[in-house]
Records
---
Amino acid sequence: MAVVGRYVELLSRCRGSGDARPIARIQAALITSGLLRGSVALHDALIRALASSGRPHAALPLYAHLLRAGLHPTPHTLPSLFKSLALSPAVPGARRLALAVHAHAVRLGLTGFLLVNNALIRVHAGLLGRLPDAHLLLRTSASVDASTFNTLITAHARAGRVADARSLFDEMPTRNVVSWSAMVNGYVQAGDGREALVVFSRMQDQGVCPDDTVLVGVLAACAQLGALEQGKWVHGYLKATCTRITVFLGTALVDMYAKCGEVQLGMEVFEGMKDKNVLTWTTMIKGLAMHGRGSDSLRLFSQMESLGIKPDDIAFIGALCACTHTGLVDKGRELFNSMVSRYGIKPKIEHYGCMVDLLARNGLLSEARDMVEKMPMKPDALIWGALMAGCRFHKNVELAEYVIRHWIELEPDKSGAYVLLANIYSASGRHASAREIRHVMRDKGVEKIPGCSNVEIKGVIHQFIVGDLSHPCIKDILTKWYEIDSRIRLEEGYIPDKKEVLLDIEEEEKEGALSRHSEKLAIAFALISTSDNTPIRIVKNLRVCQDCHHVTKLISKVFDITIVKPSEFVEYALGCLEQLADSGDHSARSVRDNLRVMVAGGDGTVGWVLGCLGELYVQNREPVPPVAVIPLGTGNDLSRSFGWGASFPFSWKAAAKRSLYKAILGPVSCLDSWHVVVSMPEEREEEQELNLPHSLRHLGECTFYDDGTAEGELPETILCFDGVFYNYFSIGMDAQVAYGFHQLRDEKPFLASGPLSNKLIYAGYTCKQGWFFTQCISDPELRGLTNIIRLSIKKMDSSEWEHIPVPSSVRAIVALNLHNYASGRNPWGTLKPEYLEKKGFVEAQSDDGLLEIFGLKQGWHASLVMVELISAKHIAQAAAIRLEIKGGQWRDAYMQMDGEPWKQPLSAEYSTFVDIKRVPYRSLIINGADR
C-alpha cells in the first residue's frame, strides 16, 4: 500500500501541467510491474491526471482496463472520466461511452453522490447536448449545490436559451461568484449587454466580490453597448484593488475601449500589458482598423510577426479588416496569399468574406464575384451581403439582382437582402422596382429589423428604437431635433435623402419617418443632456443609413461636437494621406509631399502645432509640412518675426486671401526648437497647487543626473515635465505679469474678446499692478530673482557648464530665440560689431542654435506702444541653459514660454532645475514677408 500511495502522490503532482508524457511513463511502469491491475486508487489517480493534461482522451481506455481487471469504479472515478469525455468530443464512440458509463453508475448506485450527479448533468448538457435529460437529472437528484445549477445555466446560455438560464438562476437557493459569472456571460453571449449590466449591478448590491471571469463579461457588455463610463469603472476598480491585469482582462479592456471609441486608451492598456497572447494582438489590430487607422493596424501586425508571435487565422481576419477599412487592396491580397504560403493556414469562409468586402468596397466587383464563385466552400449570407454592399455603393443593379437570388435562398425570412436591393433600385431611379420589393416583403411576411441606438449619459444607458416615442423626455427630444433640423438645413443646405424610407407613404411623411431614426433621437437626447464639450458615442445594432450618416457629419460641423487638436490633425489627416499614398494614389502622395499648414492663433497655438508636426521627424514620416500664420494672439512674436504681422487687421477678408496666397507661394525658413525640462522635488506642501500649461507634459518620476553643477540639496526622486518653445522662455516679473493677466482673462473673458482689447487690457492690467512704472531697484522683494541660486550656460561647441551671474539691476531673465521681441527689434538695441567680437558672440538668427539671454529692467516685455520705454541688459549667448532655483522668501517662481505662463511651486529644502537645450531637428515656417 505504501508503494501505491507514493505513485498516487506522484501522479497528483503531474495534474495541471499540460504535459502527458510523465504520466505516460508512470502508467507504463505501473502496467509492467502489475500494480495497476490490482488498484482502483491507481486507476483513479491516472484518470484524474490525464483529464487535466493535454491528452484527456488517453484516460478513456483506462476505464475499460479497470473493468477487465474485475475492479469497480468509485465516486472519485466517474467525475474525472466524464471530464475526459467532455474534453474529447471528437473521439469516436465518446458519446456511446458516456451513456454506457451513466448506465453503469446507475447499476452500481453511484448516482446518489453529488460529484457523480453533477458530472452526469455536465456531460448530458454539454457533450450529449440533451438539455431535457440534464433537467430531469437535476429534478430527481438527491442533493444539489451551486455547481449543479451553474452547469445547467452555462449550458442553456450556450444553447441560446438565456430565458431558461435566468429561470434556473432565480431558482437557485444559494449562488456563488461562478453563478453570477455564468449569468452575466450568458446575457453577453445572447447579445443582451443591458441585462448583463443589470445582473452585475444586482451582484454588487448583494456584496459578492467579482472575479476575473465576471469582469471580462462586464467589459464585453460595455463593449456591446458603448458604455464607456461603466467600462472605465471596471478599469478603475482593477487599479483600486491592485488586481493584476491578466491576459484575458487586458484583452477585454482593449476590446472595450476600442469599441467605445477610445482606441488610444486601448493602446495604452495594450502597451502596459506585460503578457500578451495572439488574441490580445489581434484585438488591438482590429481596434485600430475599425477606427480607420489601417496603417497603424498593419504596423502592429508586422511588429507581432517580428517578435516571433505566429499569427493565427483570427489575427489574419484583423489584418484583412484593416486593409478593408483603409482601402489597401494590394496589401490585402498579399496578406491573403501569405496565409498559405508563409504560415500554412488554410483560409476559412471569414477570410474570403474579408477579401470579398475589400474588393467590392473598392469597386472591383468582377474580381469579388469571381472569388465568390471559386471559393472552396459554399458562400454564406455574410459573403453575399458583402458583395451586395459593394453593389449598393457602386450602384451595380445587374450584379445586385444576381446576388439577391443566392442570398434569399439562404435567408428567405430575413430583411437584409430585400432592403439593400430596394435601396439600390431607389438610388438608380427604379422606384417601381423598389415598390415591388416592398410588396414582396409584405406578401412573404418579412419585416425589417428595427434600428436600435444606445447612448450613455452619466453612466446610464438610454435606448432608442426607430419610431418609438415612449422615452419620458420625448417632447424635449423632438423639440431639439426640430432645432437641429432647421440649423443643418439653413447653415449647411441639408436635404433629406428620402430614398432611404422603405415605406409606402406620402413624400411629406417620409421626412417625418427619417427624423424618427433611432440615432437621430439618440443624438438629440445627448445634446440636451450633456455639456458642450462632452463626446457623444452612439452604438447601433444595424448599419447606419446614408441619410443619418450625412446628418451626423453636418451636426458635428454645426454644433461643434468634435474639437480637433493639432496632434489629432497630424495623426488623422496626414495619416489618411499617407495611407492613400501607400495604396498607390499618386494625387495623395503629391498632396502629402507639398502640404502646407495655416495656423490661426497666437504664439502658443503656433508652437503647439509646430511641436505636433515635429513628432513626424521622430516617426521618420518626412517631409514635415511648413507652417504659415494668421496672428490672433496678444504678442504674436513668431508671426511678426516671419512677416505675418503683429495682429490680424480689421479688413480680415482681404487679409485672409493675401495670407493664403503667401502661404502657398512663400519661401520656407528654418526655426530652432528648444526643449525645456523642469525637474522638481516630488514632495510639495499640500496647499501648493501645480497647474502647468498644456505645452508642458508630465513625464512622471525620474532621477536627476548631477554633473557637478548643482549648488543646492538634491532630492532622491523628482517629478519631471517637458515641453518645447520656439521664441522665448522667461522667469521673473515678465512671467508674473503675464500670469496675472491670463488669470484675469480666464475669470472675465469678455474683457479680452479680440486682439486689440487683449492688448489694451494687458497694458492696463500691468500699469494697475504698478510693475511697469516702478523704478528699477535691487530690492529682492521687487525682483523675485533671488530664487535663482545658479545660472549656467554651455557655449557653442562646448560641453562644459559656465556659471553666469544674474545682474542685480534686472527683474526678469529671458532666453530669446528669435531676433526680435515684442517691439519688432532686439530689446537691447542693435549690437555693435565691436561688442560681438569682444564677447565672442555672433549676430542673432532664428536657426543659429543659440539663445540670447538678457534681463528686463522694467520686468516685462509689454506690447503695443509702451514697449519703447523698455530697457534691457544683454547678458550672454548660449547653446544650452540650466537654471537652479529654490524656495525661500518667494514660495513660487513665475515662468513663461511662448506666451504661456505658469506659477512654479518651489521647495525651501530642495532645488528645482530648468534645463534648456536645442531640439536636434529644426521646425519649418513659411516666410510671409512681401517680396
---
Amino acid sequence: MWKCVDKMRCFRKRSMLPFLGFLITFLLFFNLYMDDGYVLEAEKRQLGESLMHPANSDRYVHTLRDLSNFSGTINVTYRYLAGIPLPRKKYLTIGLSSVKRKKGNYLLETIKSIFDQSSYEELKEIVVVVHLADFDLVWCENLVQEITRKFAHHIIAGRLLVIHTPEEYYPSLDGLKRNYNDPDDRVRFRSKQNVDYAFLLNFCTNLSHFYMMLEDDVRCSRNFLTALKKVITSRDGSYWVMLEFSKLGYIGKLYHSRDLPRLAHFLLMFYQEMPCDWLLIHFRGLLAQKDVIRFKPSLFQHMGYYSSYKGAENKLKDDDFEEDSIDIPDNPPASLYTNINVFENYDATKAYSSIVDEYFWGKPPCTGDFFVIIFNKSTKISRIKIVTGTEDRQNDILHHGAVEVGQKSVETKQGRQCTSYITLGEFKGGSIEVTNVDHKIGFDIECVRIVVTASQKEWLIIRTISLWTTQPVSQFKK
C-alpha cells in the first residue's frame, strides 16, 4: 500500500512540472508585455483590465487571442491623406515610410522614379503606399499637397495612396532601453521607425500578392517589376520569406503579403530592442529561412546624401545596382541533375540561381559527364548563356564542352530525361552564349544539357546558367 502511495506522490510531482513550466513561461512573457512596452498602451490597459476582472472570461480569452494571433492585423484607424484602396488585389505593393528631414527631402523623386521606370502594363500591377509618419501634421499636409499636385493621375487611378497613423496609436517613446550604448535620441529615432514600418506593413496586408519595402530616398532600375516577376517565377515551388534586391538598409526587401501581419506584430513587439534591418534578420530566421537570398543586379539604388536621422551624411551606394534590369534571365522552373561529383553543398541548383555568390562546384569531370536542366513544362527558349569559373578560381572552367537542347522526355529510374538532343554550340574560354535559339530549333524545348567532351584535371565551377524565354512575363504564374 505504501508503495502505491509513493507512486501516486511521484506521479503528482511529475504531472505538476509541465504546469509549473507553463505558468513560469506565461508570467515571464506577461512581464515582458506589461513592463517593457512591447505592445501598445491601449493593449496593455485592455489586458490589465481583463486580469483585474477574471469573472469576464470571454473578454479575457479574446484579449489573449488578440495578442497571440500574429496572423491578424493590428486594430488601427488610419488617416487617408490621398487616394483610397481599390477592391482588386494588385501583384505588388511598394511601401515607403517618410518623416521630416533636417536636410533634403527625396520622397517626391523616389515616387517619380517608381512610376517613370515602369511600363504602362507594369503600372496596372502595382500600388504605392506612402506612410507620412511624422507627428508634425502641418508638414504632412504641406507634403500631401505637393504629392497630389505632381501625381494626381496616379492617385485617381488607384496606384498611389498616402496615409498617416495618429500619434495616439504609438507606444511610449520615452524611457526606452539604451541597447548598444546608443544615445537617447538615436534610440527614440530607430524605435519609432520600427513602429512606423509596422503600421505601414499592417495597412498593406490585403492590397496585393507581394510586398516590396523601399526607403524614401531611392531610385529604381528600368522595368524593375518585370525583373521581380522573373525571379519570383524562377523560385516557384521553393520556400522563402524575404528576397533581397539591394544590399543596403531596408531597401528592396520582398515579402509574401500573407507574412505582413506577423512582421508588423514582430516589429511592434521588439520595437525598442534594435534597428529594423537587424530585426528583419531575426524574423527571417524564425520563419526558417536561414540564409540571405539576394539577387544581382540590384534593382534599387540609394540616392540620398543626408540621413533622416539628424541630417547626418549618408552617401552609401550599392555597387551591384544596374539602371537597366530588363536583361535579367527568366530561368523557368526546372529540375537539375548532374553525374559530376559535387563538392560539399555547391549543388546543381545553385548554378541556375541568380542569388549572389551561389554556384555549382564539382570535382574534375570526365568525358561524357553531363549537367542537365529539365523544365517543368516545355518552353520556347530565345537565348542561352552559361559562364563557368570565378574571378578567384579562373582555372575551374569547363575547358571542353557543348550545350544541347532536348525534347521527348520520358520517365526513367533516374528521373525524367529527354531522349532526343541537338547540339547548339561549344564552350570557348569557359563560356557560351547562343542567341535566337527559338529560330534555330523547331520544337519547344524540354531539356538543356551541358556535356563534357574531354576529361580535365581541374575542378569545375558553373557560375551561372541564364535562360531567356519568348513567353511574356505577364503569363507567368503569380
---
Amino acid sequence: MDLVSGYKGVVGLVFGNENSASNEDSYVERLLDRISNGVLAEDRRTAITELQSVVAENQAAQLAFGAMGFPVLMGILKEERNDVEMVRGALETLVSALTPIGHVKGLKSEVQPALMNTDLLSREAESISLLLSLLSEEDFYIRYYTLQILTALLHNSTNRLQEAILTIPRGITRLMDMLMDREVIRNEALLLLTYLTREAEEIQKIVVFEGAFEKIFSIIKEEGGSDGGVVVQDCLELLNNLLRNNASNQILLRETMGFEPLISMLKLRGSSYRFTQQKTINLLSALETIDLLMRGGLETDAGKDANRLTNTTVLIQKKVLDHLLMLGVESQWAPVAVRCAALRCIGDLIAGNSRNRDALSSKVLGEQPQVEPALNSILRIIIRSSSMQEFIAADYVFKSFCEKNIDGQTMLASTLIPQPHSINNAPLEDDVNMSFGSMLLRGLTLSENDGDLEPCCRAASVLTHILKDNIQCKERVLQIELEAPSPTLGAPEPLMHHMVKYLAILSSIRNKDSSYAASKNLYVEPIIQKLLISWLAQCPNAVKCFLDSRFHLTYLLELVSNPSSTVFASGLAAVLLGICVLYNKSTDSGKDAFGIVDAISQKVGLTSYFLKLEEMQKSHLFSSTEQARTRKPLTRSSAASLADIEEDVDENDSSDQKNESHPILVSVFDSQFVDFIKQLEADIRESMVEVYSQPKSQVAVVPAELEQRGGENDRDYSKRLKSFVEKQCFEIQNLLARNATLAEDLAKTGGSGYSRPDHQPGGGADRIHVEKLRIDLQEANQRLEILKTEKAKVESEASTYQNLAGKMESDLKSLSDAYNSLEQANFQLEKEMKILKNGGNTPSLDIEAIKAEAREESEAELNDLLVCLGQEQSKVEKLSSRLKELGEDVDQLLEGIGDDGGLPEDDEEDED
C-alpha cells in the first residue's frame, strides 16, 4: 500500500531520524506479529494488551501502529467475534490510536499521529460498516469502545463519516437504538448524534423519523430538566440541530410532542432559584430552541412566514411569555446571560405580531401592592442595568414593540408628562410608582445631577423607538418642556433643546478629557444624535424648534469641522444639518434652507461637508452586510464562555471601546437605520442642488441705479431701467447656472476633483455655453421628431390615396372591357337582324366537314398520347434494368399497379 509506506516514511521525519523511532517500530511490529500469528490465545491477549498500553503513551508507537496495525485489528473484529476479550482489546487499542496524547505538546506544524490514524481508518467504508455492526453485540465494553471510536472519527473526518453512515443500511437506526441502552452508552451515543446531525439534512430526517423527539424529551425528563447535568445540554444541542432552519421538523414537533415539554424547562420551582453554571447552560440551550422556533425555516422556504407565525402563536398560547418575563425581568438573581437571552426571545416573540405586542403591554409584574406594567420594568432595566449586554437586549424589546406599531407608540408617548423638579430628584427606588413616561423623562434628566450621561443616552434610545416614523408622536413630544432646577435659572426649555445641550456637554468633556472621549462618548453621542435624526426627519415643526436656538446650528457646524470628532459623531452631525435643509419650511432670514446651506458653505465648505458623509458611509458599520444579531449555535465549546458573560462584558468593555464593532454601536447602527441614512443622504444632495439653483427669497440691497437721476425725463429713465433689468437678469442666469453646475458636481463626487472658480476663470462661461448648446440641441431633436411624425403621416395618406386610385383604375378597365363586349354582341345581333329582314336563310351546318375536323383533332391528340406513352415505356425499361442491377424484384414491385386504375370505375358502378 502506498499510503502505508508513506506513513512509515513519516515516522523518521517527525521524530528526528529513522534510528530514533526504530525501537518503537520494531516493538510494535513484534507485537502485531504475535497477535496475528500467535498460537496460544493467552499470548495473543497479552500482546494486544501491551500494544494498547504503548500506543496510548508513545507518539512514535502511535504512528507506527497506523502504518501496520489497522489490517491486523480489523481482521480480529471481522473474524474473531466469538472471542470477546480479543475484540475488546482490539477496540481499546483503536481508541488509543485515535486519541491525541494530551501531555505531549509539540509544535503546531508537527504531524499528529492521532489525526493521521483517523484519516487512514475513515477512508475505508468497510471499516465504518464493521464498527456499526459491533453495536449489536451484547457485551457492554464492545458497544462502549465502538461508540468512542466513531466519535473520534467524527471529530476529525466529519463529512467522510456522515457520507459513509448514510450508505450503510440501518446505520442511523443502530445509533438511535443506543439511546435506549445503559446510561454510559446512551450518553456516548447522544454525543455522537449531536456531532453527526450538524449541517446534515439527510441524517436529520432519518433521526427524526426514528423517533428522536420522544427519546430526547424522555432523557431530559429522566435527568431532571433544566436542573440536570451535561446530558440535558447534549439533548438540547441535538434538538437544536434538528430544528435549526428546518420547517418540516418544527411542524412535526409542534403537531406530535407539542411545545409543552420545552416550555416546562423554563419554569423555576422552589430551590431552582439557585443557578449553577450547568443550569445556566441548560437554560440558554432551551432559550435557543425557543429562538429557533420563532425564526422558522430557511429564508427560501415558501411557507416560512406562516410556519413562524404559527410557532409564535402556539408559544403565546402556552404562556411562554410569562416564563420569559420571569427569567428576563423578574429574576434579577438569574445570570446576566440568561436574562439577556430571555429578553431577546421576548423581542423576537413580539416582532411584527400585533397580538403578542398587546399581550406584552397588558402584562403586569410583581405582587400586590407592588405591581407595575412589564414595559415599565423593562425600561428600568435599560436605565439602571450595569451590564452592556442587558441594556442591548432590553432595548431590542422596545425596538420590536414600536416597529410599525403606531398605536403602541402613541400609547407610550401619551404618558410623557413632565413632573416637578422635586420628583425628578427623588431616590431611584421611588420610580416604582411612576408612569412609563415619567420614568423615561426622569432618565433623560438624571444627568443633570452627577454629569453621567449614560442613563440619558439609554433613555434617548427608547425615545427614538417611540418617535420613529410617527409624526403624531413627534409633534406631541415637541410640546414637552422641562422645568429649570430653580426659577432664577431661567424659563422651562423644550425637551429637544435639553438633548442638544447634552451633546454640547459631551463635546466640552471630549475637548478637556480625551480618555473619556475614548470610552463612553464612543456610543453616547451617536445615540443622542440618532434620536435627533429620527425626531427631525419628515417633521418641519421639529426642524423649526431645533433652529429656534442659533446655538444649535453653530454647534453642529463646529462638530462637523472638529478634527477630534469621531467619524460617526461628525457624520451624523452632517446628516442633521442636511435634514435642517431638507425639511425646512421657514422663511426667516438665516433659518431658511438657503441660510443653512450658506452657513455650511462658509463655515465648513461643501467639499468637507460631503466628505464627512462619505467617510461615515465607508466605515465598517455601514459597509458590512453582516446582521447585528446573528448568533452562533450553542455547543459544548462555546457554552462556558456564554455562561460567563458577566466577566466577558467587564473585560471587553475597555478593549472594544475604540473598535467600530462595539456591541452598542452595532445595535445603534442596525440595518434599518443604515438604510435610512443612505436614503437621507441622497435626498440631502438633491435638496442642496435645488437650493443652489434658486435665488434668495428677499433682496437685501437696493442698487443706486434704480433711483431717477436729476434732470432725467421719464422716457430715458424707463430705458435705463429696462437696460439695467436686462443686465441683472443675464447676470442672475449666469450665477444660477454656475451654482447649479457646482452643486451637481459636488453631489455626484462628494467634493473629489473640486477646484475653486477663481482658479478656472473661464469654466463657468464654458459650462453656460455648453448648457445653452445642449438645450438648443434638445429643442432641435424635438422639432426633428415632430417633422418625422408629420412626414410619416403624409406618407401614410399618400399610400392610401395611391391604393384607392389603383383600385378605381382597375374598376374602370373592367367596365371598359364589359362595354366593348356588349358592343360586339350588339353588332352581331344587328347583322343577323339585317339578314333576316332581307329574307335570307341561315347558312346550313356542314356536318361532314365538322366530323372530319374533329377526327383530325382526335388523331393528332392520339399521336401525342402514343408519343408520351413511348417515352414513359423507355423510362420504365431503364428503371427496371437499374433495379435488377440493385437486386430488386421488378415484377413484385409492379404487381397490382395496373389493378388500381379500375378502382374508380368500380366505385362508380357501386354508386350506380
---
Amino acid sequence: MAGTVLGLGPGVLLLQLLWGLALLLCLALSRAAGRARFAVVLVTLGAAVLSAALLLFPREEERPAAAAADEIVDTFFIGRFVLLAVMSLVFLGCLFLLLIYHLMEPMYAKPLPSS
C-alpha cells in the first residue's frame, strides 16, 4: 500500500490537488476579459469529469484480498467526515461571498463631462 499523509491516501491527495488547481485557475480566469472568462465553466466541468473518472475507476482489483486474521479499524473515519463537512461549508461560503462581492458588484454611471 502506498504511504499516507495525515492518514489520507494518495487518491484523496490527488483529488485535493486537482480541485485546488481548478479553483486557482477559475480565480485567475474570472479576472480575464472577454470570452476567456467563460472558460471557468470548462475548467469546472473538466475537474468534475476527471474526479468522476478517478472515483469510478479505482486502481485496486475488484476481488477483495484474502482476509487477514486481524481486523483493521479506521479510527479517524468520523474525523475525516467532519473535516470534509467543514471544508464543504467553507467552500460554499466562499462561493456565496464571491457572488455577492465580485459577480454582483454594482456598476455606477460615470458623470457626464461638463462644458
